[in-house]
Amino acid sequence: MSATSSAQPVLIYDTTLRDGSQGEGVSFSLQDKLNIAIRLAEIGIEFIEGGYPLSNEKDVAFFEQIRKHDLGKSKVCAFGMTRRRSMKAEDDPGMKALVAAKTPCCTLVGKTWDFHVTEVLRATLDENLAMIGESAEFLAGHSELIYDAEHFFDGYNANPEYAIKTLEAAAASGAKWLALCDTNGGTLPERVAEVTRIAKEAMASYDVGIGIHCHNDCELAVANSLAAVDVGATQVQGTINGIGERCGNVDLIAVIANLALKKENTTVLGGRPLQQLTELSRFVYETANLQWRNNQPFVGQSAFAHKGGMHVHAINKAASTYEHIDPTLVGNERRILVSELSGRSNIEAIAGKYNVGDDKELQNKILAEVVRLENQGYQFESATASFDLLIRRVSGKFRPHFETIKYRVVAGDRDVKSQVAFAEAIIKLQVGDTLWFDAAEGHGPVNALDAGLRKALAGAYPVLSEISLIDYKVRVVDSGSGTAASIRVNIESTDGKETWGTIGVSDNIIEASWQALVDSVEYKLHRSEA
Amino acid sequence: MSATSSAQPVLIYDTTLRDGSQGEGVSFSLQDKLNIAIRLAEIGIEFIEGGYPLSNEKDVAFFEQIRKHDLGKSKVCAFGMTRRRSMKAEDDPGMKALVAAKTPCCTLVGKTWDFHVTEVLRATLDENLAMIGESAEFLAGHSELIYDAEHFFDGYNANPEYAIKTLEAAAASGAKWLALCDTNGGTLPERVAEVTRIAKEAMASYDVGIGIHCHNDCELAVANSLAAVDVGATQVQGTINGIGERCGNVDLIAVIANLALKKENTTVLGGRPLQQLTELSRFVYETANLQWRNNQPFVGQSAFAHKGGMHVHAINKAASTYEHIDPTLVGNERRILVSELSGRSNIEAIAGKYNVGDDKELQNKILAEVVRLENQGYQFESATASFDLLIRRVSGKFRPHFETIKYRVVAGDRDVKSQVAFAEAIIKLQVGDTLWFDAAEGHGPVNALDAGLRKALAGAYPVLSEISLIDYKVRVVDSGSGTAASIRVNIESTDGKETWGTIGVSDNIIEASWQALVDSVEYKLHRSEA
């Protein structure tokens, strides 16, 4: 639609792992961070900010471990602040931590707003310029340097000359990017455009790109980011699903989709198709253990859901009548809420992915089973092994390797000897004509069940010794009923070569966990026969 | 900030009760609709669209009953479509239903997009103009008429001359307002501004106001609405919290706050203060039985929540450093989250709130305890009751109301009679010199523990009968160790007046849940003594 920006290359900078983790209720484990970084690289995000190595050991470990992964053209960035007031850059612990992270990029944040310099930093305006310049110079000697100008728009309002000087301090000292931050999220699009244009013109003599970093406090973060791109910003910083402090950062999902599909900018994500956006969004929600935002633009479950009879009638005549884009462009799907049935595009997608072929009857059976289970709270996005078993069951190719005769767990607060909480499981299974009975202890009831299940099957299926569990997640599906709510358990397992996810749902967490554990074992046994 | 619109009066048109009810999972009872309409009038919303009287009896009853209430200057609107193709306006059931609603305003929706006229309505372009004109003329004889131009922006793109003709048909027949609808939500702000300006100029010879009606499919509905106001729209249509079909309508909360506080338009809501906005937002969520959107701009629970230690440090020096507006302007409040990213600044801020005072030694002890517990996986940002108990413990003001002698749960897969998974808890507690022993069943082990705990304490503390659990969340803190990972349980409880959050962490989910349950009960008992 807007011709001005269609040819201009725009790079995407993701800070889900750093600024996103400032969001209320967000807390990533090391493995979560690695998993997310790998997915971001797969989809073609150019910059992946991994964390703040000075702040905690988890981020230090992240930078160490992410180096072992091939992220293609994506560059990992370590984040830090300008050096302390009375310290050389090379002696500053934050600078040292950035260098030690050994990332291809560093992101340095510094103060723009004179008020912050004098009142928060307690530095003079000149001292702050020196802190920016010397920190930038030091870091630019080690990696590609992105300078984040904190509070740029508020700072520019307060003291425009000084705000531009802070950018110059960074640009003159080797920064390759100057990202203008609307840190408080209070700026309107027309002002973002105006000030970004001024900053870009002021920096025209330096070899730097301009970036934009918006927060959503006025529900304008997407509009603000697009406005900055319209006037020449070539890097957009944000987070997947807009997670982040207060009202969040800008949602990169909406930024990417708007740039590529609405602004028709063919450079976004290197020109790749966007079919992975919906899956990426849901993967990040699941990893962060956050509720999906159903009405999220482009990727929400309701984003292409039609309820009004008039709309459904029209949609049946021509999809474009009530849809601004084809939902499959972003990997989403149309839903007609009257029938609660997913569209045929879903079945075809499934058919393609799992080699179901053109058997329409089988496709319909699979779809019906997915709908039935989703209504109970199942979600197969990250439970691909359970989904594989579902297809085997529906198509008659599932052969159970054992039958559960009974399981039981006992958990309480006092082990007689250790005086700490305990958990024990007893398991009885049938394999062919043989009954296997065993018991195990664990750190909790699910750990005990897991140990007991594999112990009981060890004699019949020695191959199970290769399995270990690497993640276990619990979600209340239908909150509002307190501890009687329905509970979804996701388990991730590995045999050292492959990892797979399984799921269980029940109002009893023990039963839900047992389902997911059984699926994990059955999947491994089916795979090892293939 | 933007001087262009500050003197221009802008009226707010709420369609929560009609377009909002198209949202997935939204369903209002008659009483819900009356309650919401009354609240909208109290806050000064000028137009309140109540429903579509042709479509159902509930809306007919709404219009009958709302007439009995004094809504001040607010006008109730009944919504309907243009007359049927081959029928006089006065004979059309939809027209009759609108007149029968006896509202001060009617809102008539008609087709702008030529494609919709010929392919969905199966009418000629001229027939559609006659349907608009004759329907408008008929209704304008009964009430103030608002004409909603469906798909105006898409229709204008397809056939600009025809789109303008549809507006003329309504304006020439007595419509007082022409609301331009971005029905599919796919238009960008610059295009909304451009086309709205053209429409306004084309209608300059009529005595009509221009309205704007946006949907959020590109996460741009607020920006689009503001862009239309900037070029002369004087009515904004939307819903409270942006509820509505697909990605929702524009959120009027953000529109109102941006117009009044950012655009400094003193006419919004008749110039009233906005302190009721947060309460209105939550009232609508509760009435619609929808989850609050915590990161909602202006009114969300997290909208002014600060987690990063650096931010909190600055906030303590001057609130404006990380807040774009004073949260009390919209009836919201600042929250300081205790988190792994927090430092002394957060503790000082919280100490202020909990009357810890200036006792540095006590503050240090609290900080040390928070750090110790955070390293174990505790997070106090939503567990404010557990944090309150922590402060009581550290400052020597905690008095335990009971001692756990033992608890134990048994869970398994076969209840002898029902043949489904079962869970039972036994509990032994000491209160003073008395031992209380009890047992309970539940849907799962935690539900059983919860029931058993309160059953065992009912004799000693009858006040506990007021408590119920309203949410239960489980999170694996340190994933990567499978089922032996550390588990964090968050519980939210209520006594009908107050709600409070508690937390427990353990590698055993049963033990973690027990901690959170005990904290919930202890908090209630401490509060009921205060």
Describe the structure.
The structure is a homodimer of 530-residue chains. In chain A, helix 9 (221-230) links the parallel strand 7 (209-214) and strand 8 (235-238). Chain A has 3 domains: 8-272, Alpha-Beta Barrel (TIM Barrel); 369-400 and 467-529, Double Stranded RNA Binding Domain; 402-460, Double Stranded RNA Binding Domain, CATH 3.30.160. The first copy, chain A, has 17 helices and 17 strands. In chain A, the strands form 4 sheets. Chain A has an 8-stranded parallel barrel, surrounded by 10 helices. Chain A has a 3-stranded mixed sheet with strand order 9-10-11. With 530 residues, chain A is of the alpha/beta class. Chain A is globular and about 85 Å long. In chain A, helix 1 (30-43) crosses helix 2 (57-66). The two termini of chain A are 51 Å apart. At the A-B interface, helix 1, helix 4, helix 8, helix 9 and helix 10 of A face helix 4, helix 8, helix 9, helix 10 and strand 9 of B. Strand 12 of chain A pairs antiparallel with strand 11 of chain B, so a sheet runs across the interface.
| SS elements, strand count of chain A | 17
CATH topology label of the largest domain in chain A: TIM Barrel
Which term fits the overall shape of chain A?
Answer: globular
Percent of residues of chain A in helical segments? Answer: 25-40%
Q: How many strands, which pairing sense, and closed or not: the largest β-sheet of chain A?
A: 8 strands, parallel, barrel
Question: Which strand-content bin applies to the residues of chain A?
Answer: 15-25%
Number of helices of chain A: 17
Count of spatially separate domains of chain A: 3
Largest interface, counted with CB-CB under 8 A?
A-B, 123 and 120 residues
CATH architecture of the largest domain in chain A: Alpha-Beta Barrel
Gyration radius of chain A, rounded: 26 Å
Looking at this structure, what is the CATH superfamily of the largest domain in chain A?
A: Aldolase class I
Give the N-terminus to C-terminus distance of chain A in angstroms: 51 Å
Low-pLDDT parts of chain A are: 1-6, 337-346
CATH uppermost class of the largest domain in chain A: Alpha Beta
Overall pLDDT score of chain A:
88
Strand order of the largest sheet of chain A: 1-2-3-4-5-6-7-8
Q: Assembly type of the shown chains?
A: homodimer
Which class do the helix and strand fractions of chain A yield? alpha/beta
